[in-house]
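User: I'm curious whether this sequence folds into something compact or stays loose and floppy. Could you predict its structure so I can see for myself?
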Amino acid sequence: MKKVFRSLVLSLLLATAGSVANAQTAELQVIHNCADPVADSVDVYVDGLIAIDNFAFRNATGFLTLPAGVDIHVGIAPKTSTSVSDTLVNYTINLASGQRYVAIASGVLNPGSFAANPDGRATGFNLLVRDNIRDAAASSGEVDFIVLHGATDAPTVDVIPQSSATALVAGAAYTDITSYLTVPAAAYRLNITPAGDNSTIVASYNVDLSTLGGGAAVVFASGFLNPAANQNGPAFGLFAALPNGTVVEFSLNTNARVQVIHNAADPAAAVVDVYGNSDPLIPDFAFRTATPFIDVPAGVDITIGIAPGTSTSVNDTIPGLSTTVNLTAGQTYVVIANGVTAPGSFATNPDGRPINFGLFLKTTVRESATDGSNVDFFVLHGATDAPTVDVIPQSSAAPLVDNAAYGDITGYLSVPASQYFLNITPGSDNSTIVASYNVDLSSLGGGSAVVFASGFLDPAANQNGEAFGIYAALANGTVVAFPLNTNARVQVIHNSADPAAAVVDVYGNSNPLIPDFAFRTATPFIDVPAGVDITIGIAPGTSTSVNDTIPGLSTTVNLTAGQSYVVIANGVTAPASFAVNPDGRPTSFALYVKPAVREAGTDGGNVDFFAFHGATDAPTVDVIARGVATLVDDAAYGDFTGYLSVPAALYTLDVTPAAGSLVVASFAADLSTLGGGSAVVFASGFLDPTTNQNGEAFGLFAALANGTVVPFTNTTGIDESNIRFATGIFPNPANNRIQVGLQVKNAANAQVQVTDVTGRIVLNRQAYLVDNQLLSLDIDQLPGGVYNLTVIEGSSLQSAPFVIAR
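Assistant: Here's the prediction. I'll summarize afterward.
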């Protein structure tokens, strides 16, 4: 190709001589990316003079210094042109002084003769101009580049590194030019995929930037996805124009990435040889080992054969244990050998899933995490005799893996790199723990893994194969065995209102567990050994050893590994000296145990709690969140409720007898700061202290997971405190404003809140209250509905409902 550059600078200076004195300048790089065969080589005219003769497709100039601040007329003509009168298209550009540009010739001369753009973008010949172009990277070890989607018949695409889940370029349509991207100077494999579907690879490229440290580039997609529909023009490719005009073509990636994991627990397959076609791929491949990710040729048939570990050639492949695969270039796979070679000699799968030896295939696999502080992993249920299971973090109600049967592979999960205790439970019963594991991911930040269930739940029924366990294969081929979790989690709450038990010592076997344990205090959740008998003894706070345990106040427990418990010490040591329970429930001192408890909420905006009726002389009660709902229904002494999840807000809780509407007591429960947390709400003390050794009076309390005990403010008898409503809310229903009359003993600052039916605070004001005041509140910004007005001053609280009618 003849490529003659006449001085573009000289041409422009001559064209503007006499009209521009001391001209300022700009820099421009020109790239030819018009794939129309008619324009495979063009002549470029500037202000009527030839500037670039025979400018070939996929070629570029270096940065040219041009006058700034004047109109420059650019014409594109066939390569056979003899003068500017032969130009096909003309453009006028005006460059800013000191600026650096790239101009990219793109499109086709006659769009009607070419395939239309799938997104409806115009494909006519055009000059795409971009400013703020760099000729070097900011860092010597990095490469800065922009990307142009320059293929007229290609749809909107993503550009994503192989084995990654994070797109480098997202949602780029024809003619889109990205902002600058900065990456380490290294070799990459980049996949072109339809936007939003990174599992479908249109093409994959080897993009070697390792020699370009400190440099910059313009990366451009070029050519046609379907040349046959585009005048047999050049095929699609990926290129980079460097600042000096060099254009680099990135080669097609012809490989896939594959990791292989041996998870077949059949003792006969403890060690195998793996062949690809007739070649040994993985000799002496042992159970519960893995390869690192390796390159494997794509686009060709590969027959995978499994042979005994003693094999000498592919001819020793075990009958029935071969399969043919054809991998996609740029795709990343995990292949897991699983199952048993003779299913009739092993326990059947409880869900009826076939368990014969086979290869489980997972595509679109990651070799690293999408976030440097997280670990990305998927999970395989690979235990042939195990039923459908859930995997659930200890002390949680939200499964990480839900209803996974043998052979199921989950999608990717991304979690902070930390330590977890994970319970395996039947799919429909998270309270029954099959096994619990200590899963320490704290050192794997930024990494990826394949977590797989392995082995047999019942080895005796499965040729005495390896027992069940949980393992993780890392991207480098390391396989990590997660140890069994041998602990339970326990929180203990002291709620015995007996004055004689105001402070106690708690022993576990002969060891002091909780010394000087005071009434209405709680421990945080702590680890306690599981699977062993622990004798819990309660002794006076002055005890010196377990021998001081109060007669009758000891019990033996055996906790389940992975389970989380709340244990509440409740009742009285001498029931005959206290009022009897109105429902005839026994009130003797005892430990009340609640399993399957949570240390955190299931929703960051909610609080999860259960309630415990721990007041010995109180009847069966309801607890009503005023204006919201009944939270506790018909709870008698010693009863636990199930979990309730409510928005983190301020509530007024009314305690009523189960059979009536009379409010026995009311409490202000401020849960507004507890979003994402959990609690145990417990009724405590005596309704009538005078008949109960003058013990502590009735109250409602909440024990948080960290051991903090929060008292709810008793608002019963608020009429005798500092403030009261002297009138009802009016008008009611209201539209723009509500008013209420107040009686105030002592002038004070107060908090005025409006909550909606979910308990969410929608208005929050401060007000200075004086006696005989008419409190007025503007509500015109609130939608129609039912609300509650609450006025709080110190320990005084008044609350009443109202309706907004729109």
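Summary: Residues 257-481 form one domain. The longest strand covers residues 761-769.
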